[in-house]
Amino acid sequence: MATPKSGIIPPGGYHFEDEHGRVEGSSYDDVAEQLLRFRVQNKLPLGMPLAEVVNYTCSRHPHFCHAPQAQVSVSKAAKPALSGRVIEWYSALYRGLRGTDVSQNYVDAGTANQRAKTCLSCPAHTEWRTGCGSCVSSARRIGHTYRAGRKVEYEDKLLACDIVGHDCATAVWVKAAPSLTPEQNDALPSHCWRKRL
Ligand code: SF4
Fold first, then answer.
1. 62 Cβ closer than 6 Å to some ligand 1 atom
2. In Å, how far from its chain's centre is CA 194?
3. Which of 38, 142, 148, 171 has the least CB density, counted as fewest CB within 10 Å?
């Protein structure tokens, strides 16, 4: 993916436009943040805001961006990056909320803390904040927005579940989560709280 050159403000200022309207901000990150908020508030697919904002600018003004670096070829059988799966999980979570109140979809703090403890000692608990930087920052923003200030005791140590593809820091708070595939359900260990939902 091309990356914008730093310090050069694109024509019309930092902004993004699609069929839902125009978002403006003080930087690419700020536009991505506002785009994410707009999508959350309007229960739209979350997409990958920062990558979309960068693509939007670089496709219109390529001379404002560094050319993309050569892609390393990836085997078709390669498992998708966990950061991308986490974004997909957030999209499914928000899609599932269509028409319902997000505030009704949290468990209590005791349950969330218990779940977090279980994840922390689970072999499927996996680092996901590597690779695609824009995917990771998008997912982290989405998580902060969804949790709306809720924190479990071990929040800073929580990673992602490599079986479900969820961000544990958020998933432990969710009452009604996106459905699992039969393969995911079979793969979950017996101690897993998600298996029992
Ligand atoms: S398998 Fe269950 S307990 Fe383990 S990390 Fe995933 S959600 Fe947490």
1. no
2. 19
3. 148
Pocket test of ligand 1: the residue of 93, 164, 174, 197 to mutate, having most ligand atoms within 8 Å of its CB, is 164
Please tell me if the CB atom of residue 169 comes closer than 6 angstroms to any atom of ligand 1. Answer: no
- Predicted confidence (pLDDT) per residue in 153-177, tens digit: 989 999 999 999 999 999 999 999 9
CA atoms of 65 and 70, how far apart (whole Å): 15
pLDDT tens sequence across 137-149: 888 888 988 898 8
* CA 194 – CA 148 distance, rounded (Å): 22
- Using the 8-state DSSP alphabet, how is residue 16 labeled? E
**Can you list the positions of beta strands (E) in 14-145?**
15-18, 21-24, 65-66, 125-126
Best probe residue, ligand 1, of 188, 190, 196 (max atoms within 8 Å of C-beta):
188
Which of 41-45, 48-52, 82-86, 168-172 has the weakest average pLDDT?
41-45
Question: What CA–CA distance (Å, rounded) separates 167 from 84?
Answer: 11
Residue 156 CA to ligand 1 centre (angstroms):
16
